[in-house]
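Here comes my example:
=====
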Amino acid sequence: MRRLPRSLVAVAGAVALTGGCTGGLVPRAAHSSPAVPPRASSPLAASPLVSNQLQDDYQRVIRNVLPSVVQIEASQSLGSGVVYDVQGHVVTNAHVIGQDKTFKVSAATGGETVTARLVSSYPEQDLAVIRLDTVPPGVRAATFGDSSKVDMGQIVLAMGSPLGLSGSVTQGIVSATGRTVSEGGAGGGTGATIANMVQTSAAINPGNSGGALVNLNSEVIGIPTLAAVDPALGGGSAPGIGFAIPASMVRTVAGQIIQHGRVTDSGRAALNITGRTVLGDDYEPNGVAIVQATPGGAAADAGMRAGDVITKVGTTPVTTITSLAEALAAHQPGDKVTVAFTRGTKQERVQVTLGEM
């Protein structure tokens, strides 16, 4: 069960991203200002008590959370998941489960392998919920934190099964919040555009996808989903750049799937169109042509129609389907935005009340 890492494109366009799934274990060889006091004089560096306390904190969090992390084996991939509730629901990435309906699941702490079945997948947010047929002994539901309290500089741990190494833990900080990231959709990717992601320096390797990004309060603050690679280096990894779906979105999607069997309220803004990227005379993308505007949808109600080519949403230029999705990710359903488009040879602008995906 081999699977190549999938490539994705970040908003800034400087790096690509790869989902953290793997087809199996592939081991790799380990390859001041004068005004600032010397490190040795720092109380933090000098005190073994501080170092020991931090180590104790790490070990406490691992003991608390690792029993909530599982390894998920699908037909074409190997990834991770987080136990969501006592009924045995497990949340993971949609790209981890692919098109499968049944899975083999084992606890990160070891023990028996059990069968799990798909409840529902929501590729638009790269999330899915499966349910364990039986809950293995020692496995327990995770505690999800408050995404609004996640901030830069917080210490975090990433837990999962990188390269099939079940129960692995890496450490880092929250590097940024509010990132909008678009998946490329190649190599099994979902092609989703995901807003408000947590950027972390904790290593996110193939197999970490669907696992847990955890704070020192033993709370899951995100689901590790993407790791950056540098196209300029032939797709080599860009160390210290990973992304996780925030806990608030995980709860929103998983809660609806468990209650209704599907996502009924995405909370994501949409123009309610089917579109395609348009290439200019220089073969460069220069807009999104409306193939169909859903009757009663946001674009149709604003007077837009098939054949119109969208070039801007608000102040954000639109050149491709991906850039359109990224522009919309910054808004909420019901927001009023100005959409610029061309109709034939004419430049048009119209105010649109955004609908919901």
Q: What stands out?
A: The chain is about 15% helix and 40% strand. Residues 97 and 261 are 16 Å apart (CA to CA). Confidence is low (pLDDT under 50) at residues 1-16, 23-44. Helices lie at 43-46, 48-65, 94-97, 247-260, 298-301, 321-329.
